[in-house]
Design goal:
59% helix; 2 helices; mainly alpha; two-stranded antiparallel ribbon
Length: 98
């Protein structure tokens, strides 16, 4: 009789999952998921990818339009104690003689 407990639990879980997916079984369930996935791709994923591509193309065009603009090539060194960011030699800290 102990085995019927887990069988019932498994049956309840399958029933819950089936109902959560719209109550469809077999090929109808698969077809509905395929339609939903296709719609999601064309309504959300593809437009987002195209927007990202357009933004990258605009950025590349803007970068190519002015070849003489200044571009910082050094990474700043983090300095949490003093000013936040420093680029060269660390300045001497001022010590007061009181």
């Amino acid at each position: 009789m102990a085995s019927s407990g887990w069988k019932r639990a498994l049956g309840n879980a399958r029933s819950f999952v089936g109902n959560a997916m719209g109550g469809l079984r077999g090929t109808a369930n698969l077809a509905s998921w395929a339609v939903a996935g296709t719609l999601a791709y064309f309504l959300w994923v593809k437009p987002a990818q195209e927007l990202k591509r357009e933004q990258e193309a605009k950025a590349a065009l803007a970068a190519a339009s002015d070849p003489y603009r200044y571009i910082e090539k050094r990474k700043p060194i983090p300095d949490p104690q003093e000013t936040g960011l420093i680029y060269g030699k660390r300045s001497e800290t001022k010590k007061s003689d009181s």
